Task: inverse folding
Protein backbone atom coordinates (compact mmCIF):
# COMPACT_ATOMS: atom_id res chain seq x y z
CA UNK A 1 0.00 0.00 0.00
CA UNK A 2 2.87 2.34 -0.68
CA UNK A 3 1.83 5.76 -1.89
CA UNK A 4 3.49 5.99 -5.26
CA UNK A 5 3.59 8.02 -8.42
CA UNK A 6 4.61 5.85 -11.36
CA UNK A 7 5.70 6.75 -14.88
CA UNK A 8 5.55 3.93 -17.41
CA UNK A 9 7.89 4.22 -20.40
CA UNK A 10 6.57 2.33 -23.40
CA UNK A 11 8.71 1.21 -26.29
CA UNK A 12 6.93 1.84 -29.59
CA UNK A 13 9.93 1.37 -31.84
CA UNK A 14 10.03 -0.64 -35.08
CA UNK A 15 11.29 -3.67 -33.19
CA UNK A 16 7.88 -4.02 -31.60
CA UNK A 17 6.27 -5.31 -34.77
CA UNK A 18 7.86 -8.68 -34.23
CA UNK A 19 5.51 -11.56 -33.48
CA UNK A 20 7.67 -13.62 -31.17
CA UNK A 21 5.45 -12.60 -28.28
CA UNK A 22 1.83 -13.30 -29.12
CA UNK A 23 0.18 -11.60 -30.89
CA UNK A 24 2.87 -8.96 -31.39
CA UNK A 25 5.44 -7.54 -29.00
CA UNK A 26 3.56 -4.29 -28.95
CA UNK A 27 0.26 -5.91 -28.03
CA UNK A 28 1.86 -7.99 -25.30
CA UNK A 29 3.43 -4.85 -23.92
CA UNK A 30 0.12 -3.00 -23.99
CA UNK A 31 -1.55 -5.80 -22.02
CA UNK A 32 1.21 -5.72 -19.46
CA UNK A 33 0.89 -1.96 -19.12
CA UNK A 34 -2.85 -2.20 -18.58
CA UNK A 35 -2.32 -4.79 -15.90
CA UNK A 36 0.28 -2.72 -14.10
CA UNK A 37 -1.89 0.39 -14.17
CA UNK A 38 -4.76 -1.53 -12.70
CA UNK A 39 -2.63 -3.05 -9.99
CA UNK A 40 -1.08 0.25 -8.98
CA UNK A 41 -4.33 2.17 -8.80
CA UNK A 42 -5.99 -0.62 -6.88
CA UNK A 43 -3.30 -1.05 -4.28
CA UNK A 44 -3.70 2.53 -3.12
CA UNK A 45 -6.45 4.85 -4.34
CA UNK A 46 -4.15 7.84 -4.17
CA UNK A 47 -1.55 6.29 -6.45
CA UNK A 48 -1.02 7.99 -9.77
CA UNK A 49 0.27 6.53 -13.00
CA UNK A 50 1.49 8.27 -16.12
CA UNK A 51 2.56 6.97 -19.53
CA UNK A 52 5.08 8.11 -22.09
CA UNK A 53 6.45 6.67 -25.32
CA UNK A 54 10.16 6.51 -25.93
CA UNK A 55 10.35 5.99 -29.70
CA UNK A 56 8.47 7.48 -32.60
CA UNK A 57 9.34 11.06 -33.43
CA UNK A 58 10.68 11.60 -29.95
CA UNK A 59 9.86 11.08 -26.34
CA UNK A 60 6.26 12.05 -25.81
CA UNK A 61 4.25 12.10 -22.60
CA UNK A 62 0.85 10.59 -23.32
CA UNK A 63 -0.66 11.21 -19.91
CA UNK A 64 0.80 12.86 -16.83
CA UNK A 65 0.50 10.99 -13.53
CA UNK A 66 -3.19 10.58 -12.77
CA UNK A 67 -5.29 8.20 -10.74
CA UNK A 68 -7.95 8.00 -13.43
CA UNK A 69 -7.55 4.52 -14.89
CA UNK A 70 -9.88 5.23 -17.80
CA UNK A 71 -7.74 8.08 -19.02
CA UNK A 72 -4.64 5.93 -18.89
CA UNK A 73 -6.22 3.05 -20.81
CA UNK A 74 -7.68 5.42 -23.37
CA UNK A 75 -4.35 6.96 -24.20
CA UNK A 76 -2.96 3.55 -25.11
CA UNK A 77 -5.19 3.46 -28.17
CA UNK A 78 -3.99 4.54 -31.56
CA UNK A 79 -0.30 4.44 -30.78
CA UNK A 80 1.94 4.25 -33.79
CA UNK A 81 4.96 2.06 -34.11
CA UNK A 82 8.11 3.51 -35.54
CA UNK A 83 11.52 4.91 -34.89
CA UNK A 84 14.09 3.87 -32.37
CA UNK A 85 13.87 3.68 -28.59
CA UNK A 86 15.66 6.49 -26.76
CA UNK A 87 16.21 5.07 -23.30
CA UNK A 88 18.15 7.90 -21.69
CA UNK A 89 15.82 10.64 -22.86
CA UNK A 90 12.81 8.57 -21.89
CA UNK A 91 14.03 8.10 -18.34
CA UNK A 92 14.94 11.73 -17.96
CA UNK A 93 11.59 12.95 -19.16
CA UNK A 94 9.91 10.48 -16.84
CA UNK A 95 11.94 11.85 -13.96
CA UNK A 96 10.88 15.36 -14.83
CA UNK A 97 7.24 14.36 -15.03
CA UNK A 98 7.50 12.80 -11.58
CA UNK A 99 9.20 15.84 -10.15
CA UNK A 100 6.19 17.93 -11.01
CA UNK A 101 3.68 15.55 -9.51
CA UNK A 102 0.87 17.09 -7.58
CA UNK A 103 1.21 15.14 -4.38
CA UNK A 104 4.76 15.51 -3.19
CA UNK A 105 4.31 12.83 -0.59
CA UNK A 106 4.23 10.10 -3.21
CA UNK A 107 7.28 7.94 -3.79
CA UNK A 108 8.65 8.18 -7.29
CA UNK A 109 8.92 5.15 -9.56
CA UNK A 110 9.69 4.62 -13.23
CA UNK A 111 8.84 1.41 -15.07
CA UNK A 112 10.64 0.92 -18.38
CA UNK A 113 9.71 -1.61 -21.06
CA UNK A 114 12.89 -2.14 -23.03
CA UNK A 115 12.04 -4.02 -26.24
CA UNK A 116 14.40 -2.59 -28.81
CA UNK A 117 18.20 -2.44 -28.65
CA UNK A 118 19.90 0.02 -26.30
CA UNK A 119 22.30 2.32 -28.06
CA UNK A 120 23.73 4.10 -25.01
CA UNK A 121 26.77 2.70 -23.28
CA UNK A 122 27.03 1.42 -19.80
CA UNK A 123 28.73 4.51 -18.40
CA UNK A 124 25.97 6.84 -19.50
CA UNK A 125 23.34 4.54 -18.10
CA UNK A 126 25.14 4.29 -14.81
CA UNK A 127 25.28 8.07 -14.55
CA UNK A 128 21.56 8.22 -15.16
CA UNK A 129 21.06 5.55 -12.55
CA UNK A 130 23.03 7.48 -9.99
CA UNK A 131 21.04 10.59 -10.67
CA UNK A 132 17.81 8.69 -10.13
CA UNK A 133 19.12 7.29 -6.87
CA UNK A 134 20.16 10.74 -5.72
CA UNK A 135 16.64 11.99 -6.23
CA UNK A 136 15.20 8.86 -4.60
CA UNK A 137 13.46 7.57 -7.69
CA UNK A 138 13.01 3.81 -7.99
CA UNK A 139 13.33 2.07 -11.35
CA UNK A 140 11.86 -1.17 -12.68
CA UNK A 141 13.04 -2.50 -16.03
CA UNK A 142 11.29 -5.15 -18.15
CA UNK A 143 13.82 -6.54 -20.58
CA UNK A 144 12.05 -8.31 -23.45
CA UNK A 145 12.13 -8.37 -27.23
CA UNK A 146 15.62 -7.98 -28.67
CA UNK A 147 18.10 -10.10 -26.84
CA UNK A 148 21.78 -9.53 -26.90
CA UNK A 149 24.46 -9.85 -24.26
CA UNK A 150 25.31 -6.20 -24.12
CA UNK A 151 21.73 -5.09 -23.68
CA UNK A 152 21.09 -7.30 -20.68
CA UNK A 153 24.37 -6.24 -19.13
CA UNK A 154 23.69 -2.55 -19.63
CA UNK A 155 20.24 -2.77 -18.14
CA UNK A 156 21.53 -4.74 -15.17
CA UNK A 157 24.15 -2.06 -14.57
CA UNK A 158 21.51 0.63 -14.78
CA UNK A 159 19.27 -1.02 -12.21
CA UNK A 160 22.22 -1.76 -9.95
CA UNK A 161 23.16 1.92 -9.99
CA UNK A 162 19.65 3.01 -9.04
CA UNK A 163 18.93 0.30 -6.58
CA UNK A 164 18.53 1.43 -3.02
CA UNK A 165 17.38 -1.18 -0.54
CA UNK A 166 15.90 -3.47 -3.16
CA UNK A 167 13.35 -0.97 -4.36
CA UNK A 168 14.39 -1.33 -8.01
CA UNK A 169 14.10 -4.51 -10.05
CA UNK A 170 14.89 -5.87 -13.46
CA UNK A 171 13.01 -8.71 -15.14
CA UNK A 172 14.15 -10.55 -18.25
CA UNK A 173 11.29 -12.05 -20.23
CA UNK A 174 12.34 -14.41 -23.02
CA UNK A 175 10.07 -15.02 -25.99
CA UNK A 176 7.76 -17.97 -25.67
CA UNK A 177 4.22 -19.13 -25.25
CA UNK A 178 3.75 -17.39 -21.92
CA UNK A 179 2.22 -13.98 -22.23
CA UNK A 180 4.33 -11.08 -21.07
CA UNK A 181 1.71 -10.07 -18.52
CA UNK A 182 1.55 -13.52 -16.98
CA UNK A 183 5.26 -13.64 -16.46
CA UNK A 184 5.24 -10.19 -14.89
CA UNK A 185 2.50 -11.11 -12.42
CA UNK A 186 4.86 -13.16 -10.35
CA UNK A 187 7.67 -10.64 -10.31
CA UNK A 188 8.38 -8.01 -7.65
CA UNK A 189 7.22 -5.40 -10.15
CA UNK A 190 3.72 -6.49 -9.37
CA UNK A 191 4.05 -7.80 -5.89
CA UNK A 192 5.82 -4.66 -4.86
CA UNK A 193 8.81 -5.48 -2.68
CA UNK A 194 7.22 -8.35 -0.88
CA UNK A 195 4.39 -6.41 0.64
CA UNK A 196 2.13 -9.19 -0.43
CA UNK A 197 0.97 -7.23 -3.41
CA UNK A 198 -2.53 -6.21 -4.08
CA UNK A 199 -5.45 -8.56 -4.09
CA UNK A 200 -5.73 -7.60 -7.74
CA UNK A 201 -2.42 -9.16 -8.59
CA UNK A 202 -3.14 -12.29 -6.61
CA UNK A 203 -6.55 -12.75 -8.15
CA UNK A 204 -5.21 -12.12 -11.61
CA UNK A 205 -2.50 -14.68 -11.00
CA UNK A 206 -5.03 -17.24 -9.89
CA UNK A 207 -7.22 -16.58 -12.89
CA UNK A 208 -4.28 -16.84 -15.22
CA UNK A 209 -3.14 -20.08 -13.68
CA UNK A 210 -6.67 -21.46 -13.81
CA UNK A 211 -6.91 -20.62 -17.46
CA UNK A 212 -3.86 -22.75 -18.08
CA UNK A 213 -5.84 -25.48 -16.24
CA UNK A 214 -3.27 -26.20 -13.61
CA UNK A 215 -5.97 -27.71 -11.46
CA UNK A 216 -6.82 -31.37 -11.16
CA UNK A 217 -10.49 -31.03 -11.83
CA UNK A 218 -10.70 -27.84 -13.84
CA UNK A 219 -12.29 -26.20 -10.85
CA UNK A 220 -10.69 -23.22 -9.23
CA UNK A 221 -10.49 -23.72 -5.46
CA UNK A 222 -10.77 -19.98 -5.05
CA UNK A 223 -14.08 -19.88 -6.80
CA UNK A 224 -15.75 -22.96 -5.40
CA UNK A 225 -13.93 -24.50 -2.47
CA UNK A 226 -16.66 -26.89 -1.47
CA UNK A 227 -17.00 -28.43 -4.87
CA UNK A 228 -13.26 -28.72 -5.21
CA UNK A 229 -13.05 -30.39 -1.81
CA UNK A 230 -15.86 -32.80 -2.63
CA UNK A 231 -14.24 -33.78 -5.89
CA UNK A 232 -10.89 -34.29 -4.25
CA UNK A 233 -12.32 -36.38 -1.45
CA UNK A 234 -14.30 -38.65 -3.73
CA UNK A 235 -11.25 -39.14 -5.90
CA UNK A 236 -9.22 -40.21 -2.92
CA UNK A 237 -11.97 -42.46 -1.69
CA UNK A 238 -12.18 -44.22 -4.99
CA UNK A 239 -8.46 -44.75 -4.98
CA UNK A 240 -8.54 -46.06 -1.46
CA UNK A 241 -11.41 -48.35 -2.25
CA UNK A 242 -9.56 -49.87 -5.12
CA UNK A 243 -6.50 -50.41 -2.97
CA UNK A 244 -8.66 -51.95 -0.32
CA UNK A 245 -10.26 -54.28 -2.80
CA UNK A 246 -6.88 -55.44 -3.98
CA UNK A 247 -5.63 -56.01 -0.48
CA UNK A 248 -8.83 -57.75 0.44
CA UNK A 249 -8.29 -60.30 -2.27
CA UNK A 250 -4.76 -60.87 -1.11
CA UNK A 251 -5.67 -61.31 2.51
CA UNK A 252 -8.65 -63.48 2.01
CA UNK A 253 -7.00 -66.46 3.57
CA UNK A 254 -6.10 -64.73 6.79
CA UNK A 255 -9.54 -63.28 7.06
CA UNK A 256 -10.79 -66.21 9.10
CA UNK A 257 -8.58 -65.36 12.05
CA UNK A 258 -9.70 -61.82 12.16
CA UNK A 259 -13.36 -62.55 12.17
CA UNK A 260 -15.45 -60.70 14.59
CA UNK A 261 -12.95 -58.06 15.28
CA UNK A 262 -14.97 -55.50 13.48
CA UNK A 263 -11.97 -53.55 12.61
CA UNK A 264 -14.05 -51.07 10.82
CA UNK A 265 -15.33 -49.68 14.08
CA UNK A 266 -13.15 -46.64 14.27
CA UNK A 267 -9.87 -47.61 12.76
CA UNK A 268 -11.53 -47.42 9.44
CA UNK A 269 -13.74 -44.52 10.22
CA UNK A 270 -12.34 -42.52 7.44
CA UNK A 271 -11.55 -45.15 4.90
CA UNK A 272 -13.73 -46.50 2.23
CA UNK A 273 -13.55 -50.21 2.67
CA UNK A 274 -16.69 -51.83 1.45
CA UNK A 275 -18.28 -48.63 0.31
CA UNK A 276 -19.95 -48.93 -2.97
CA UNK A 277 -19.59 -46.36 -5.64
CA UNK A 278 -22.97 -44.99 -4.73
CA UNK A 279 -21.77 -44.34 -1.23
CA UNK A 280 -19.05 -42.12 -2.47
CA UNK A 281 -21.53 -40.24 -4.55
CA UNK A 282 -23.77 -39.75 -1.59
CA UNK A 283 -20.79 -38.52 0.25
CA UNK A 284 -20.09 -36.01 -2.42
CA UNK A 285 -23.47 -34.51 -1.88
CA UNK A 286 -23.28 -34.75 1.85
CA UNK A 287 -19.95 -33.13 2.15
CA UNK A 288 -21.61 -29.78 2.15
CA UNK A 289 -22.00 -30.23 5.88
CA UNK A 290 -18.67 -31.75 6.55
CA UNK A 291 -18.73 -33.08 10.05
CA UNK A 292 -22.20 -34.53 9.92
CA UNK A 293 -21.56 -36.37 6.72
CA UNK A 294 -18.30 -37.84 7.84
CA UNK A 295 -19.75 -38.94 11.12
CA UNK A 296 -22.70 -40.57 9.46
CA UNK A 297 -20.49 -42.33 7.01
CA UNK A 298 -18.26 -43.61 9.75
CA UNK A 299 -21.16 -44.94 11.76
CA UNK A 300 -22.82 -46.38 8.69
CA UNK A 301 -19.68 -48.20 7.76
CA UNK A 302 -19.23 -49.61 11.19
CA UNK A 303 -22.74 -50.97 10.99
CA UNK A 304 -22.57 -52.27 7.47
CA UNK A 305 -19.31 -53.97 7.13
CA UNK A 306 -17.53 -55.67 9.97
CA UNK A 307 -15.71 -57.91 7.56
CA UNK A 308 -13.11 -55.42 6.52
CA UNK A 309 -9.53 -56.44 6.91
CA UNK A 310 -7.12 -54.83 9.24
CA UNK A 311 -4.50 -53.97 6.72
CA UNK A 312 -6.73 -51.62 4.80
CA UNK A 313 -6.82 -49.39 7.79
CA UNK A 314 -3.81 -47.54 6.64
CA UNK A 315 -5.29 -46.01 3.56
CA UNK A 316 -6.02 -42.41 3.55
CA UNK A 317 -7.01 -41.03 6.87
CA UNK A 318 -5.96 -37.58 5.90
CA UNK A 319 -9.17 -36.33 4.31
CA UNK A 320 -11.28 -36.81 7.38
CA UNK A 321 -8.51 -35.84 9.72
CA UNK A 322 -8.08 -32.50 8.14
CA UNK A 323 -11.64 -31.61 8.76
CA UNK A 324 -11.75 -32.01 12.45
CA UNK A 325 -9.14 -32.10 15.15
CA UNK A 326 -11.06 -34.38 17.47
CA UNK A 327 -11.74 -36.82 14.72
CA UNK A 328 -8.07 -36.81 13.86
CA UNK A 329 -7.10 -37.53 17.42
CA UNK A 330 -9.59 -40.36 17.66
CA UNK A 331 -8.34 -41.78 14.42
CA UNK A 332 -4.74 -41.68 15.46
CA UNK A 333 -5.61 -43.28 18.73
CA UNK A 334 -7.44 -46.02 16.95
CA UNK A 335 -4.63 -46.60 14.48
CA UNK A 336 -2.07 -46.93 17.21
CA UNK A 337 -4.14 -49.29 19.21
CA UNK A 338 -5.09 -51.40 16.26
CA UNK A 339 -1.52 -51.66 15.13
CA UNK A 340 -0.38 -52.82 18.53
CA UNK A 341 -2.49 -55.85 19.03
CA UNK A 342 -5.36 -57.53 17.37
CA UNK A 343 -7.03 -58.12 20.63
CA UNK A 344 -6.87 -54.46 21.18
CA UNK A 345 -9.88 -54.33 18.91
CA UNK A 346 -11.96 -55.59 21.72
CA UNK A 347 -10.92 -52.60 23.77
CA UNK A 348 -11.98 -50.31 21.00
CA UNK A 349 -15.32 -51.97 20.85
CA UNK A 350 -15.75 -51.42 24.51
CA UNK A 351 -14.79 -47.82 24.15
CA UNK A 352 -17.29 -47.20 21.48
CA UNK A 353 -19.89 -49.12 23.34
CA UNK A 354 -19.34 -46.78 26.17
CA UNK A 355 -21.93 -44.34 25.12
CA UNK A 356 -20.78 -41.55 27.31
CA UNK A 357 -17.41 -41.53 25.60
CA UNK A 358 -18.99 -41.47 22.20
CA UNK A 359 -21.42 -38.76 23.05
CA UNK A 360 -18.62 -36.69 24.48
CA UNK A 361 -16.77 -37.00 21.20
CA UNK A 362 -19.90 -36.14 19.33
CA UNK A 363 -20.58 -33.14 21.50
CA UNK A 364 -17.15 -31.78 20.81
CA UNK A 365 -17.66 -32.07 17.08
CA UNK A 366 -18.98 -28.77 15.82
CA UNK A 367 -22.29 -28.96 14.10
CA UNK A 368 -23.30 -32.23 15.66
CA UNK A 369 -25.96 -32.18 18.29
CA UNK A 370 -25.99 -35.31 20.43
CA UNK A 371 -29.65 -34.81 21.06
CA UNK A 372 -30.38 -34.89 17.40
CA UNK A 373 -32.69 -37.85 16.89
CA UNK A 374 -30.86 -39.21 13.86
CA UNK A 375 -27.61 -39.18 15.77
CA UNK A 376 -29.28 -40.84 18.69
CA UNK A 377 -30.63 -43.58 16.48
CA UNK A 378 -27.25 -44.21 15.01
CA UNK A 379 -25.73 -44.35 18.43
CA UNK A 380 -28.32 -46.78 19.66
CA UNK A 381 -27.90 -49.09 16.73
CA UNK A 382 -24.18 -48.88 17.06
CA UNK A 383 -24.38 -49.73 20.68
CA UNK A 384 -26.52 -52.73 19.93
CA UNK A 385 -24.03 -53.90 17.45
CA UNK A 386 -21.20 -53.33 19.85
CA UNK A 387 -23.01 -55.35 22.44
CA UNK A 388 -23.55 -58.07 19.88
CA UNK A 389 -19.85 -58.02 19.14
CA UNK A 390 -19.00 -58.21 22.78
CA UNK A 391 -21.30 -61.13 23.21
CA UNK A 392 -19.64 -62.86 20.31
CA UNK A 393 -16.25 -62.26 21.85
CA UNK A 394 -17.39 -63.51 25.17
CA UNK A 395 -18.83 -66.58 23.55
CA UNK A 396 -15.63 -67.19 21.74
CA UNK A 397 -13.52 -66.79 24.81
CA UNK A 398 -15.32 -69.39 26.91
CA UNK A 399 -15.30 -71.68 23.92
CA UNK A 400 -11.55 -71.41 23.69
CA UNK A 401 -11.25 -71.88 27.37
CA UNK A 402 -13.27 -74.97 27.06
CA UNK A 403 -10.88 -76.29 24.56
CA UNK B 1 25.54 39.88 20.85
CA UNK B 2 27.55 37.90 23.34
CA UNK B 3 30.75 35.97 23.51
CA UNK B 4 30.16 32.29 23.58
CA UNK B 5 32.28 29.22 24.17
CA UNK B 6 32.66 26.85 21.31
CA UNK B 7 29.86 24.50 22.19
CA UNK B 8 27.65 26.40 24.60
CA UNK B 9 24.22 27.55 23.59
CA UNK B 10 24.13 31.21 22.76
CA UNK B 11 22.33 33.28 25.35
CA UNK B 12 18.62 33.54 24.76
CA UNK B 13 18.74 30.99 22.04
CA UNK B 14 17.19 27.62 22.19
CA UNK B 15 18.07 24.40 20.50
CA UNK B 16 15.37 24.11 17.88
CA UNK B 17 15.44 20.33 17.89
CA UNK B 18 12.10 20.22 19.67
CA UNK B 19 10.37 22.22 17.00
CA UNK B 20 11.35 20.05 14.07
CA UNK B 21 8.33 18.43 12.44
CA UNK B 22 9.74 14.95 11.95
CA UNK B 23 6.92 13.72 9.74
CA UNK B 24 7.98 16.05 6.98
CA UNK B 25 11.73 15.78 7.22
CA UNK B 26 13.35 14.65 3.98
CA UNK B 27 16.96 14.07 3.16
CA UNK B 28 17.92 13.42 -0.44
CA UNK B 29 20.97 11.38 -1.35
CA UNK B 30 21.52 10.08 2.12
CA UNK B 31 22.92 6.64 2.71
CA UNK B 32 20.08 4.70 4.29
CA UNK B 33 22.32 3.10 6.84
CA UNK B 34 23.56 6.51 7.87
CA UNK B 35 20.44 8.60 7.80
CA UNK B 36 19.67 12.14 8.83
CA UNK B 37 18.45 11.44 12.40
CA UNK B 38 21.96 10.26 13.23
CA UNK B 39 23.17 13.83 13.03
CA UNK B 40 20.31 15.58 14.70
CA UNK B 41 18.48 13.49 17.25
CA UNK B 42 19.47 13.64 20.87
CA UNK B 43 21.69 10.79 21.81
CA UNK B 44 22.43 9.88 18.24
CA UNK B 45 24.30 13.02 17.50
CA UNK B 46 26.46 12.73 20.56
CA UNK B 47 27.65 9.36 19.39
CA UNK B 48 30.82 9.85 17.40
CA UNK B 49 30.24 6.68 15.44
CA UNK B 50 26.86 7.68 14.06
CA UNK B 51 27.04 10.02 11.10
CA UNK B 52 24.85 11.30 8.35
CA UNK B 53 26.49 10.15 5.13
CA UNK B 54 25.80 10.91 1.50
CA UNK B 55 25.23 8.14 -0.99
CA UNK B 56 25.63 8.53 -4.73
CA UNK B 57 27.80 11.63 -4.59
CA UNK B 58 28.95 14.23 -2.11
CA UNK B 59 25.90 16.51 -2.15
CA UNK B 60 23.12 16.39 0.38
CA UNK B 61 19.78 18.08 0.40
CA UNK B 62 18.00 18.25 3.72
CA UNK B 63 14.48 19.61 4.10
CA UNK B 64 13.36 20.44 7.65
CA UNK B 65 9.86 21.74 8.36
CA UNK B 66 9.12 23.20 11.77
CA UNK B 67 6.05 22.91 13.93
CA UNK B 68 5.91 26.64 14.38
CA UNK B 69 7.50 29.74 12.98
CA UNK B 70 10.99 30.31 14.28
CA UNK B 71 13.84 32.71 14.00
CA UNK B 72 17.12 31.07 13.23
CA UNK B 73 20.18 32.57 14.85
CA UNK B 74 23.07 30.23 14.36
CA UNK B 75 23.95 26.76 13.31
CA UNK B 76 26.55 24.25 14.42
CA UNK B 77 27.75 21.61 12.02
CA UNK B 78 30.25 19.11 13.27
CA UNK B 79 31.99 16.65 11.04
CA UNK B 80 35.28 14.94 10.30
CA UNK B 81 38.08 17.09 8.95
CA UNK B 82 38.26 15.48 5.57
CA UNK B 83 34.73 14.59 4.66
CA UNK B 84 32.94 17.29 6.60
CA UNK B 85 30.85 19.76 4.62
CA UNK B 86 32.41 22.88 3.20
CA UNK B 87 29.91 24.92 1.24
CA UNK B 88 26.48 24.96 2.77
CA UNK B 89 23.54 26.88 1.35
CA UNK B 90 20.43 27.59 3.32
CA UNK B 91 17.01 28.23 1.85
CA UNK B 92 14.01 29.28 3.87
CA UNK B 93 10.39 28.43 3.24
CA UNK B 94 10.88 26.57 -0.03
CA UNK B 95 9.03 23.26 -0.08
CA UNK B 96 10.33 20.10 -1.72
CA UNK B 97 13.37 21.34 -3.48
CA UNK B 98 15.39 19.02 -5.65
CA UNK B 99 19.01 19.03 -6.68
CA UNK B 100 17.99 20.45 -10.01
CA UNK B 101 16.45 23.62 -8.67
CA UNK B 102 18.98 24.60 -6.05
CA UNK B 103 20.36 27.08 -8.49
CA UNK B 104 16.97 28.46 -9.44
CA UNK B 105 16.89 31.02 -6.67
CA UNK B 106 19.50 32.54 -4.46
CA UNK B 107 20.00 31.03 -1.02
CA UNK B 108 19.09 32.94 2.08
CA UNK B 109 22.61 32.42 3.25
CA UNK B 110 25.75 30.68 2.10
CA UNK B 111 28.24 29.31 4.62
CA UNK B 112 31.74 28.17 4.01
CA UNK B 113 32.72 26.01 6.92
CA UNK B 114 36.22 26.13 8.28
CA UNK B 115 37.84 23.33 10.23
CA UNK B 116 37.02 25.22 13.38
CA UNK B 117 33.38 25.16 12.54
CA UNK B 118 33.65 21.46 12.01
CA UNK B 119 34.89 21.12 15.55
CA UNK B 120 31.78 22.74 16.88
CA UNK B 121 32.08 26.50 16.56
CA UNK B 122 28.68 27.89 15.70
CA UNK B 123 28.22 29.89 12.56
CA UNK B 124 26.21 33.02 13.07
CA UNK B 125 23.70 33.56 10.32
CA UNK B 126 22.38 36.72 8.74
CA UNK B 127 19.70 37.06 11.33
CA UNK B 128 17.55 39.41 9.30
CA UNK B 129 17.04 36.80 6.66
CA UNK B 130 15.86 34.18 9.12
CA UNK B 131 13.16 36.04 10.97
CA UNK B 132 10.19 34.12 9.77
CA UNK B 133 11.19 30.56 9.06
CA UNK B 134 8.59 27.83 8.53
CA UNK B 135 10.91 25.36 6.87
CA UNK B 136 14.58 25.18 6.21
CA UNK B 137 16.38 23.52 3.34
CA UNK B 138 20.06 22.80 3.82
CA UNK B 139 22.03 22.12 0.67
CA UNK B 140 25.49 20.72 1.29
CA UNK B 141 27.28 21.34 -1.95
CA UNK B 142 30.69 19.87 -1.34
CA UNK B 143 33.03 18.74 1.37
CA UNK B 144 36.41 19.75 2.67
CA UNK B 145 38.53 17.33 0.78
CA UNK B 146 36.43 16.82 -2.32
CA UNK B 147 35.83 13.17 -1.60
CA UNK B 148 32.83 11.24 -2.81
CA UNK B 149 31.12 10.96 0.51
CA UNK B 150 30.20 13.78 2.84
CA UNK B 151 29.86 13.00 6.51
CA UNK B 152 28.08 15.06 9.13
CA UNK B 153 28.43 14.00 12.69
CA UNK B 154 26.27 16.57 14.44
CA UNK B 155 23.98 19.38 13.49
CA UNK B 156 22.42 21.90 15.88
CA UNK B 157 20.06 24.67 14.94
CA UNK B 158 19.84 27.52 17.39
CA UNK B 159 17.24 30.22 17.49
CA UNK B 160 14.02 31.33 19.06
CA UNK B 161 10.39 30.79 18.38
CA UNK B 162 8.19 33.67 17.29
CA UNK B 163 4.83 32.93 18.88
CA UNK B 164 5.92 31.45 22.10
CA UNK B 165 9.10 32.16 23.92
CA UNK B 166 10.25 29.26 25.96
CA UNK B 167 10.93 30.79 29.33
CA UNK B 168 13.14 27.92 30.36
CA UNK B 169 15.45 28.67 27.50
CA UNK B 170 15.97 32.24 28.50
CA UNK B 171 19.16 32.46 30.43
CA UNK B 172 19.57 35.02 33.15
CA UNK B 173 21.78 37.87 32.20
CA UNK B 174 24.51 37.99 34.78
CA UNK B 175 26.36 41.12 33.93
CA UNK B 176 23.72 43.75 33.57
Result:
Amino acid sequence: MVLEATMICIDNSEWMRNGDYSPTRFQAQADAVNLICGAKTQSNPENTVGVLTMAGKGVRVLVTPTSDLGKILACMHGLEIGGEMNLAAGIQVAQLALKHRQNKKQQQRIIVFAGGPVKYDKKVLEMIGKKLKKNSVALDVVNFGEEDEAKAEKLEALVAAVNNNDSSHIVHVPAGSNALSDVLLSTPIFTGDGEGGSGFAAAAAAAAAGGVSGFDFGVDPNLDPELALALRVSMEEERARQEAAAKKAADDSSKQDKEGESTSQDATMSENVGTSASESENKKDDLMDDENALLQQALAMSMDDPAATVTTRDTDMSEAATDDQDLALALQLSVQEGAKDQSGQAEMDKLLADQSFVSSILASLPGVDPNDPSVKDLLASMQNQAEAEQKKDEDKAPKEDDK
Amino acid sequence: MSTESTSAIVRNQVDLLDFIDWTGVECLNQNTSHPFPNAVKQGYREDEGLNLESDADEQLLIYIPFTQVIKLHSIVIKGPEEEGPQTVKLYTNKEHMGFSNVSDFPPSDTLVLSPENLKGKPVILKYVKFQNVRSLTIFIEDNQSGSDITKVQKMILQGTTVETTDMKGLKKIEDH
